[in-house]
Amino acid sequence: MEKCANQKPVGKLLHLDNINQNNSTNDNEIDLRELFTALWRGKRLIIICVMFSIMLASLNLRQAERKYTVRYVFAPVASENSGPNLGGLGGLASLAGVSLPTSSSSDFLTYKFLLKSEEVAARILKDRDLLVSVFSSEWDTERELFRQPASGPLRSVVRGLKNLLTGNEPSAYIPPNAARLSAWMDKAFNSSEDRETGFLTLSAETAKPTLMVDVITRATQETDQLLKERYVATEEQTMSFYQQQLSRARAREHREALAKLIAQEDQKLMLASKGSYFVAEPITEPYVSLGPTSPKALLVLALSVVLGGFLGAAIVLIKKAFKS
Predict the structure, then answer these.
(1) What is the CA radius of gyration of the chain?
(2) CA 223, CA 130: separation in Å to the nearest integer?
(3) pLDDT tens digits along 26-57
(4) At residue 202, what are phi and psi to the nearest 5 degrees?
């Protein structure tokens, strides 16, 4: 009897737990229904928020600057050749102050590194018209010189806040020089090398595609010319070193390696004397997109619809929470 009496309360408790669980499930279902009902009742407010968001996105698209995609592809002039086995000739050449010829792949890497360097920028500075086009906002047409553009009220406020927070005084104005042009080119266009083909692609997204094509073309030409001049300046010393080593060489393998190097240097010198491309040559004409690629109108409008819907739904639910 006592055992049965103890089992009855336990059964009642389990029954009550099941009832509570069913009630909580029903409450969740009711809350979900109420949520959708509240959103449906506030559909007009949600639609108004969506339309307002679309209107703001449209105004932004109308005022936004249209940018075009520019792309220029280059390839190494010569394919990579495995150099001959020179043994200790490399160390001997370094002691003599002579640099052995590098493969075309290393020349191409040097080309890529120098493309946006200050040394190349200093050569581009000689083109006054191109420099004025790049820094057109700083060019004073009447005085024909560069000067600091007038700063608006917003820019003055930003400078004041920056000085207040960091303690750094605003730097003095520096007219366009090699360092500034190099920094501008570093931000203006990107360079990427394809591992499979070895092609170098220069790309940019700009509001002035014609100017960007001119800058990239001039930068690539000056870089190629710089490497050519460096090679010609050291070629005579390098060839005389090879001739001396060839006259002293006794081993057949050593003589064959030196002869191969001399032949490669003659071929490279012939390429440098032609006045054509020395390290890299364009394989296509500069590509400019037919229409603007930025901003993306469909993406901006789609995001405005989503954000407007979320904003309207949030306002409706907040109003419901205050009422309840």
Answers:
(1) 36
(2) 17
(3) 554 547 788 888 888 888 999 999 999 999 99
(4) -105, 120
188-245 residue pLDDT tens: 999 998 888 889 999 999 999 999 999 999 999 999 999 888 877 776 666 666 666 6
d(CA 213, CA 287): 9
Please state the domain extents for the chain: 1-31, 68-130+176-288, 136-175
**The two three-digit tokens of residue 106, written as one number:** 């290393």
278: buried, middle or exposed (CB in 10 Å: 19+, 13-18, 0-12)?
buried
Q: How far is 247 from 236, CA to CA, in rounded Å? A: 17
Residue 39, CB half-sphere, CA atoms under 13 Å: how many? 11
For residues 216 and 189, the answer to whether their CB atoms sit within 8 Å is yes
Is the pTM above the cut of 0.85? no
Cis check for the bond before 153: say yes or no (omega within 30 of 0).
no
User: What is the C-alpha separation between 131 and 223, in angstroms, rounded?
Assistant: 17
